[in-house]
Input
Amino acid sequence: MKHIKFLLSSIAVIFLLISCEKDLPNYLSYENYVFSSADEDGGSWQTTLINSGDEIIIPAPADISSAEYQQELSNLKQEVSNLSDSEEKAIEYWTDNPTIRWNEIALELIAKYNIIPGPNADGTYTLPNPNNPSGPPAFPFAHPPYAVRALAYLSVAQFDGLISAWHYKYTYNRPAPFKQDDEIKYAYSDNNIPSYPSDGAVLASVSRKILTAMFPLEAEYLEAKEAEHLRSLLLSGGYVESDIEAGKIIGNEIATEALERASTDGMKKAQTPKAVSDSIADAAYERFGWKWVNKEIPQRPVGLTPLYSQVRMWNVPNVELTRPIPPPSLDSQAYIDDVKILKDYADNITTERRRIANFWQDGLGTYTPPGHWNEFANRFIVKYKLNPLRSARTFAYLNMAMMDGGISCWDAKYYYHYPRPIQTIEGFKTIAGTPNFPSYTSGHSVFSAAGAEVLAYIFPQEATLVRGWAKEAAISRVYGGIHWTFDAYIGTEQGIDVAQYTIDVAQVDGAD
Output
């Protein structure tokens, strides 16, 4: 019972601080702001995919007094003198912190592709195939493990790319064109950050390549967004063409590094054939005397990504280091007590509990639980006026921690293979759709606790708030009837444990 009190503590207060409605805007609207810091030393921060910020080589920029650069200034003045309405809107949309916009585009695509492939006419299932992305069914199915992996690769590549950009910005210190010529007006606030190479161009190129690999059917859309973004950088008055071309070099090279890692990280084998899935279930039954059984009608033959636990982690050395204690046996007093708690919730569902369950559902057609925490990060980034480099750092550590948390959670799910409440409580009804994978631990709880810990580290002023949200996300799955209370509170502890590995890395990366 103490664990229930742990989950419920402060929820009444926290719930007042977040909307009861889940209809969050697609794009965050905010006023242009002055960055809280320039981070002149950002080029020396620790990288993840490359060894250091100077590993990617770009050419030295032309001197500002050279004929070459003066011609670029002249060309720029000509370009900005006749902006169209659509170009002005693009400049306003992308802002001078486009890290946010590319994250939002990723969330949009996750929601679009977060659709379970349905059964064939004969009752069989065909899985999405990256070698035939148009399907049917279309690739990918952007479920939470897939979603958080896409976000992790995107944000880590963005962060490394911007560390490289910052290295060269303060090596060459080339002032922005609007500082060279009074006739060139800058569309945003002057943050006095050198223009070569363009950090926005790094983000445009790296984001387009990563997201195209993750969502191949969106190649044309993403190419158009990249072109629009690159054009807006020039027309903002903040960069000449050579600034943008240098940024593209960094973006393309760092994307190659990221996708090389992704190609060998084990994700291709995470979704298993039925024989492998059955052997995992049988092994759990031999260990514990139970196994989860999918109660769907029609029943999908294989649970979701049984071998996601074998995907390469970012900061946890070995997934077994974060494996939680075993769940209660099905004849234990702890289990019997939990059955009573779940029956009481089902019989006495309140308006508040239903709203909490619905708010945190993050089911099909949404950007999933990891996306929910990226949405929160976006809002904090604007609130605290982070520059693009610090924004990318926030997303990188947030999504690495949540991806590691997801891998750890899926290790527990398929190692213990614990039944869902609807499998063992006769006649039990839920108010949320029951996922097709084992119960222990709760993915919502692990993702949310891991995300909250990283955000609490980066935004300590928000620590109480985000940790309260994580507790609420955890208990929401119990209110929905699809998880045991121990799934939630042990999952919360698991997420905190996993996140600390990433926070330990962040604390020594040179940014604090």
User: Anything to note?
Assistant: The domain at 2-27+308-506 is CATH 1.10.606.20 (Vanadium-containing Chloroperoxidase; domain 2). The chain has two domains: 2-27+308-506, 76-263. The longest helix spans residues 144-172.
